[in-house]
Amino acid sequence: xxxxxxxAISTALKDGAISIVRMSGEDSFGIISKISDIxxxxxxxxxYGHIFDKGEMVDEVLVSxxxxxxxxxxxxxxxxxxxxxxxxxRLILNILLENGCRLAQPGEFTKRAYLNGRIDLSRADSINxxxxxxxxxxxxxxIKGINGSVERLIMPLMDEMKDVISMIEVNxxxxxxxxxxxxxxxxIKPKIEKII
Length: 196
Fold this sequence. Notes:
Distance between the termini: 40 Å
Radius of gyration: 25 Å
Strand content: 15-25%
Mean pLDDT: 88
C-alpha cells in the first residue's frame, strides 16, 4: 500500500486561525498541481496560492513541499496550511480524496516514516507518547525517546548479547577448534549478569 498517496487533517478539527491538511506519497505534487494555482513547485519550499474545486476558488493557502528523502515519511509530501474553519478544512480534505488521495489511517504517516527507515520503532512509539503527553515530565521523556536515547541505551546491550551468543554457538558448532575460548559457567555468567 506504500505506492498510494495518503492524506489527513493534521491539526485538531476545531474552528481556529489555521488548519493543516497533509499529503504523502508519489503523487502529492501532481495532486496539488491539479487543485491549486501553484504550478512551479520547488522542493523544500513554501508557496502561496489558492485551492480550487471544479474551477471555483475554495481557500487562500500556503503550501509546503517536501521532496522524497527529505520529508517526515521520506516520500514526496505536501502540507496545506488553510484557514482553520472545520468546513473549509474538511472541504480541502474531500477535494484531495476526489483527486487521487486515500484517507490515511491513524498513525499512518509515522508508520510510513518507520517503514521507509526514517525512524526506528522506539522513536515511533516516542512520537505517540509526545502527542499524548499531559505533563512536562511526559513530554521531556518522549523527546528523549525521539532523540534516540532508548536506542543508544539498548544497542550496546544488544551487541554484548550477540557476542555472548556467538561464543556459545562457536563452542557448540566447532568444539574441536583449539584457538577458541571455551565457554564455561565461570566465564559466561559474569557477562550475562552484566547485561542483566
